[in-house]
Amino acid sequence: MHCLECSAELERLDHHHLQHCCGLTLQEYAIRHHMPLDLLLSTEQINGIESTNDYVTLSDKPSSRAQTLLSALRLSQSIQQQGEFSVIEHGVRRLEQLLCYLQCLRQYGFQFRQEYSYDDNSHRVIAKNRLKTPSDSLLDTMPAALDHVLFSAVLLAEVGEFHAGYVFLRLPKNVAADDYIEGLRNNFQIRCIALDAVLGPNKGLNHGASQEKAGAVKQLYRTESLEDAHRLLKLVEPELTLIPCASERFYADVPVAMISKELVFDSAHFISDHPGKCENLHGGRYNLQVKIEGRIDPLDGFVIDYGYLKSVVKHRVIDQLDHQTLNYVNCDLAWRSSTELLNVFIWEQLIDYLPGLLEVQTYETTQSYCVYRGPKLEDMQAVEANFPLKYFSNQDLGRSSLRKLLDDNPTKKLQLVND
Ligand SMILES: [Zn+2]
Fold first, then answer.
1. Could you tell me if residue 415 is inside a domain?
2. pLDDT at res. 201
3. Closest by alpha carbon to 319, among 267, 368, 246, 259?
4. Domain total in the chain
5. Do residue 208 and residue 285 come from a single domain?
6. Is 398 inside any structural domain?
7. Residue 61 shares a structural domain with residue 127
8. Ligand 1 mean position to 40 CA, how many Å?
């Protein structure tokens, strides 16, 4: 076999050779030279089983830095149990991030492995980059004297995302996560809000369900405002910029793209006070296109995972409108369920979850559609209750002095005058 990096003639291309010749892993070599990974592997390298005997037991107490790193990885649930091992796993694009952790985590006996297995779903051999240690090595870890900056930086590196200037965090739904969010608010004046958890387990904006096995239910948090995101990124900057890959996600200058998801729903509606056919109850199929603009995340090549986009639109919009009479969904649509006001309603349902929302486009028929570009999230936060949809829900409605005339009785008035 011929090494495409150094041109050496080899019996077999293996990690040992690559490490000395170019520093790539077999998976990276396969990707760089666009060849199937299977071609580089011998059958005994696939689905191998490892013994904990290959790992050394360390006697020194881990440093407080290593303890902080481990605590953050635990809160983000980045450490999985696999047989007798505790494992931290990331994709090929985040190898350097794993190796950065490994500098510290060797104190817990962690070692790097690239492991290959035959995947029954995709019918091909896949590679996993893992830091592994026998689970026994993590048993008697003392509670750490936490370095808050490092702790938050690792959390962002593991479960943080950056969209339209807002930081999103996908944390487990438990007391430790609640305490962390509370601590951010109390100690650093960084406010985060919990977004509806109905999005399902493990879903973040760039983490569709497909990427992960079913696990504990996660809670998606978003920094409340742009200033909160700014404060958080400033807090973690000294540490986050040192974590390869993760720092790219938050600080790199990357190109921007627009993505769009199309969904349909069937609804009935009628338009009040309208001298036309539409004042009659009628139904149809609406075609909705939701467009998001944002940075292309260098770690996964997405603006937002289409799966997340679909699940947000489905949960926040489709589930409310599909097979409903639009006039009974919302009080302002009750008056006039035009595509224009429908788009305003849809915008308001989505903007908290999708701050990169660029445009909502709704086709009522194939020939009639409306495009709406609403206010940005930060602008909506600044001027609450100023939108066209707020007329009938406004509590001031009904309080004008003119309303006295609603109960006006001319006969009664005449009598009063005569008296
Ligand atoms: Zn070589």
1. no
2. 44
3. 267
4. 4
5. no
6. no
7. yes
8. 13
Query: How many angstroms is it from 5 CA to the middle of ligand 1?
Result: 5
Q: Is the dihedral of CA 34, 40, 43, 48 positive or negative?
A: negative
Is 401 within the bounds of a domain?
A: no
Predicted pLDDT of residue 195:
92
- Same-domain status, 286 and 339: yes
- How far, in Å, from the CA of 43 to the mean position of ligand 1? 21
pLDDT value of residue 143: 66
pLDDT for residue 392: 83
| Gap from CA of 37 to ligand 1 centroid (Å) | 16
DSSP for residue 33:
T
Ligand 1 is a single-atom ion; what residues have CB below 5 A from it? 3, 5-6, 8, 21
Whether 243 is covered by a domain: the verdict is yes
Task: Please tell me the predicted confidence (pLDDT) of residue 390.
Answer: 77
CB contact set of 27 (below 8 Å; sequence gap of 6+): 37, 92, 114, 127, 129
Q: 282 and 358: one domain?
A: yes
Asked if 228 and 332 sit in the same domain, the reply is: no
Distance between CA atoms of 78 and 151, rounded to whole angstroms?
13
Q: Which domain holds residue 168?
A: 148-251
Clarify whether residues 18 and 86 are in a common domain.
no
Given a cut of 70, the residues of the chain with pLDDT beneath it are: 140-144, 197-215, 384-389, 412-419
The total of other beta-carbon atoms located within 10 Å of residue 185's CB is 13
- CA 18 vs. chain centroid, Å, equals 35
Distance, CA 99 to ligand 1 centroid (Å)? Answer: 22
CA distance 321 to 286: 10
Tell me, yes or no, whether 242 and 184 share the same domain: yes
Question: Within this chain, do residues 262 and 361 fall inside the same structural domain, yes or no?
Answer: yes
Predicted pLDDT of residue 141? 65
CA Rg value for the chain: 28
Measured distance CA(37)–CA(47) in Å, rounded = 14
pLDDT reported for residue 213: 47
Residue with tokens 């003392």: 142
The SS3 of residue 163 is strand
CB 326 within 8 A of CB 346: no
DSSP structure string for 264-277? EEEEEE-BTT-SSG
Q: Domain end: 97, 120, 138, which one?
A: 138
Ligand 1 center–CA 16 separation, angstroms: 10
Could you tell me if residue 165 is left (phi over 0), alpha (psi between -120 and 50 degrees) or otherwise beta?
A: left
Q: What is the pLDDT of residue 403?
A: 93
